[in-house]
Amino acid sequence: MRALVTGGAGFIGSHLVDYLMRRGEEVRVLDNLSTGSVSDLERWLDGPRFELVRGDLLNPSEVEAAVEGCDVVYHLAANPEVRVWIASPEDHFKQNIEATYSLLEALRRRGEAETLVFTSSSTVYGDADVLPTPEEYAPLKPISLYGASKLAAEALVSAYASMYGFRCVIYRMANVVGPRCSHGVVYDFVEKLRRNPRELEVLGDGTQSKSYLYVDDCVEGMILGAERAEGRVEILNIGSEDRVDVKTIARIVIEEMGLSGVDIRLTGGVDGGRGWKGDVKLMQLDMSRLRSLGWRPRVSSAEAVRETAKALVRRG
Fold this sequence. Notes:
- The chain is an alpha/beta fold.
- It folds into 2 domains: 2-176 and 213-238, 3-Layer(aba) Sandwich (Rossmann fold); 178-211 and 242-282 and 299-315, UDP-galactose 4-epimerase, domain 1, CATH 3.90.25.
- Helices cover 37% and strands 19% of the residues.
- It has 9 helices and 14 strands.
- It has helices at residues 11-22, 60-67, 89-110, 145-164, 185-195, 215-228, 246-256, 288-291, 301-315; strands at 2-6, 26-31, 50-54, 72-75, 115-121, 167-173, 175-177, 199-202, 209-210, 212-214, 233-238, 244-245, 263-266, 282-283.
- It has a 7-stranded parallel sheet with strand order 3-2-1-4-5-6-11, with helices on both faces. Strands 12-9-14 form a 3-stranded mixed sheet.
- Helix 2 packs across helix 3 (89-110), helix 3 runs parallel beside helix 4 and helix 7 packs parallel to helix 9.
- The longest helix is centred in the first third of the chain and has 22 residues, at 89-110.
- It starts with a strand and ends with a helix.
């Protein structure tokens, strides 16, 4: 198999590349390196089965060249930032919706790829009334621009797969954490405590409770679901079996950094204790569908957070 991984120099993407390369597959990465790191792919750079293409999904000619000869495409490239003061509406439209359209057009024109794997997000559910939330939950009402952009991209992926004859597997992902992560609550807490080990600011009221999935579990689930799901268009939740709240995450990070006497300062948040506008306060996914294919996460949410904190502290 020859695989294309868009965003393959990023956090999840680089772990996916590691997995595919260890299985003996040929892997091509397309990444503009705006946030990804070549160092996370360094072990493969000189290998005969690996190719790194520095290119942008918004450039049609670069995308068409990248998909040439590929059997399966893993589309991970995106702007992952939910917080509105970091990513603008235009960022989400261009990097999540327009970039996905550009990739789908290249797949339509080339007509070679058999399978597209797309990483969507649990944020498409918005404030779900049902927890754990199953894939058939409706109506889908995202409360963030990020969630809206992922839902729009899901619709495009589904339509192109149905019209142009390839399979697609769409993963609605919980918060993925682990070594190499460069954003999110665990990363933010470590960076804040490095700057000021006496006080930790926590956005919101601290009761936000969500599912955290360790990156190794995530990659294994993505591969297994893509290989075993049989439908033309498959939508699969992927996350951990439980939740952990933000105050517990703060305590875990403080412990792993070897600190004591840290003042945890809650900001109180917005809209009933959210960390920011668009922050889903409670999130846990029903993974019955993916479990029925033979996958289950090995690590709980709290364990995933702890292992991530350890890795970030070691990295320095």
